[in-house]
Amino acid sequence: MGTAKKKMNEEKKVIVPPTGISENGRLIYIVSQLQGIPENNIRIDLERTQLTISALIRTEKVMRKISVPEGSRISKKKFRDGILEITLEQPL
Fold this sequence. Notes:
mainly beta; Immunoglobulin-like
């Protein structure tokens, strides 16, 4: 029982950043607020039908998972002033 309690304390607190999602034709626009996080700490993963934005900062883990249509690809990404903008292109 002591080991399980210790493991729980070692886990990082997960923060879900405010994120906006909109679509226009074949494009999906994702805007996520990541203030205070250096750009080189941010990771973007796209696997089949899920886009994951994540970062580690001190004792916290920032993570947002977004369902996307299969076959989507990242066509553009920009990070400035704590705002991450991602544009996905959906398949035809």
